[in-house]
Amino acid sequence: MVNILGIGSSPRKGGNTDVLLRNLLKGANSQNASVEEIHLRDYRFESCIGCEGCRVAKRCTGLDDEMQLIYPKIHQATGLVLVTPIHNYNMTAFMKAFIDRLYCFYDFGDERPGDWSSRLADQGRRVIIAAIGEQSDLEEGGMDLTLKAMRLPLEALGYEVTGMMPVLGIFDKGEIEKRQRILDEAKKLGRQLVHEVEPA
């Protein structure tokens, strides 16, 4: 069974980010994948504090918060779907904090800087990265920056990118539901993820 974890980072419940994530996961689910949808706004967790405790413990020990509930879901899912609205030219603070908290999956050598590796690598993991912004240009509103800022750390962790989905020119709540082409594209990308990912 292929396990797919969808993570939304909008603070606005029922908005365009939620709708896009739901359609991406619908596509995955249509291929008999096991899917789970979570929203970071529903979890109480802090940003990484740089304590470096995870270098020894191989897990996050510096913060005992609800990110600890998400870590097992990440381990179980070989497919990941990340969706964010663009806030101030970048991903939301929720998404940035989430990605920073994945630092505990790295192994480091004794020297600094030095060799490093990810315990999530070489496991056939795949990711879809999607972002929604109101501007109509990839560069004007920070879309390019947002997608790159999400892609680079996920690739470093060992994920291969199945697809990146920029959604432009949308702001009003629920507006994306009127854009059937976008929703169809999302479902197609979700289906593709299942075919590319390796079962857990």
Structural features, described:
The strands form two sheets. A five-stranded parallel β-sheet has the order 2-1-3-6-7, sandwiched between helices. The chain has a two-stranded antiparallel sheet with strand order 4-5. It is globular and about 55 Å long. With 200 residues, the protein is of the alpha/beta class. It is 34% helix and 20% strand. It has one domain: 3-Layer(aba) Sandwich (Rossmann fold), CATH 3.40.50.360. The model has no long low-confidence stretch (mean pLDDT 95).
Keywords:
200 residues; alpha/beta; Rossmann fold; five-stranded parallel β-sheet; two-stranded antiparallel sheet; 6 helices; 7 strands; globular
CATH-defined fold name: Rossmann fold
**Oligomeric nature of the chains:** single chain
CATH class: Alpha Beta
Number of strands: 7
Radius of gyration, rounded? 17 Å
What level of helicity do the residues show?
25-40%
Number of helices: 6
What string gives the helices and strands in order? EHEHHEHEEEHEH
Class by SSE composition: alpha/beta
Shape: globular
Low-confidence residue ranges: none
Q: What's the average pLDDT?
A: 95
CATH architecture: 3-Layer(aba) Sandwich
Number of domains: 1
CATH homologous superfamily caption: Flavodoxin domain
User: What is the makeup of the main sheet?
Assistant: 5 strands, parallel
Whole-Å distance between the termini?
7 Å
Instruction: Name the strands of the widest sheet in spatial order.
Output: 2-1-3-6-7
